[in-house]
Amino acid sequence: YEAKQRNDSVSVYAPEADHNSAARLGLLGDLRRALERPDRPELGELGVFYQPQVAIDSGEVVGVEALLRWRHPEHGMVGPEEVIRAAEHTAVMRLLTYRVLDEVVARVAQWQRDGLRLRAAVNVSVRDLHTADLVDHLAALLDKHDVAPSQIELEITEGALMADPRRVLATLRRLDRLGIALSLDDFGTGYSSMLHLRRLPLSEVKIDRSFVLGMGSDPDDAAIVRSIIELAGALGMRVVAEGVEDERTWRRLSSLGCQVAQGWFYARPMPAAELTSWLARYRPPRVRQPADAADPA
Ligand code: C2E
Ligand code: MG
Ligand code: MG
Ligand code: MG
């Protein structure tokens, strides 16, 4: 980056360096065009993948997280974090969130018709919570597709609360009154977490995957995971661990009393069509009881 600052003729691709970088503006224009296309969402460049969330003890699939995917015609898959970074400070963010919500609510309605009761969690960004019509838009969508609010959950991050806490709190309260469950994502990476847990109408915390990925090798990460599970339990909140990649992590989370897990150990995020066949094949992994080993029979 230093080279870039001192000499403009040295070109370094560094999208983090500047909100208005050429690369980002390029992406933003492409994104705007992709959003304008009237394609059915599942056929267009912009799509949503779904990753199962599983109750650790029963092995039951309790829901899915919806994750944005953009297949750019020239650059291939562009990661959601990069898409959000490009869009977040612009009016495009709202269109993107609505595109995801439209797709997810319609999908949940389709699952209902197929006899599948799956709750879907949708990520919303800081800016979405400052948008006055988010709640009305969501309420109208639920109404249109005849989906109960309890089938949709919104995941927010603590960053959302920093910019305009009063306005965000007002939006969260309206969502709560509507019956939408709210989850605090990436927990442990933001600011003043304890206060947020107490003041906001949250029903769930998600332990950030960096701690879960590290808990097998780093005692500090393990201590953080254990504390979050205890804290959430004491406050009567559901706790979800994301980034569960292997059996050992899954077993440890089970013994720590974590309720729900999400990660490659179960399944990677996948298109809706694949999810249906995954669900048909799925057999819950069994938590080995200590008695199994002792049982002489
Ligand atoms: P997130 O909400 O924390 O989502 C979890 C991320 O962890 C996803 O990355 C998922 O693919 C990844 N993941 C799941 N299981 C594992 C695992 O076992 N190991 C590892 N290493 N990773 C795992 P993804 O799909 O790249 O999304 C990244 C972030 O982008 C999300 O983090 C979320 O903050 C944001 N995002 C995704 N979709 C949307 C969206 O529709 N709207 C908004 N505003 N943000 C979104
Ligand atoms: Mg999330
Ligand atoms: Mg997360
Ligand atoms: Mg995240």
Word description of this protein:
The chain is of the alpha/beta class and 297 residues long. It is built from 13 helices and nine strands. Strands 1-2-4-5-6-7-8-9 form an eight-stranded mixed beta barrel, surrounded by five helices. Helix 11 (247-256) links the parallel strand 8 (238-242) and strand 9. It is globular and about 50 Å long. Mean pLDDT is 87; it is low at 1-15 and 293-297. The structure holds ligand C2E and magnesium ion (3 copies). Ligand C2E binds at residues 51, 67-68, 79-81, 84, 100, 123-125, 155, 185-186, 209, 242-245, 262-264, 269.
Summarize the structure.
Residues 24-283 form the EAL domain. 45% of the residues lie in helices and 18% in strands. It has helices at 2-6, 22-36, 80-87, 92-113, 134-145, 159-163, 165-178, 193-199, 209-214, 219-234, 247-256, 272-281, 290-294, and strands at residues 46-55, 61-72, 76-78, 119-123, 152-156, 181-187, 204-207, 238-242, 260-262.
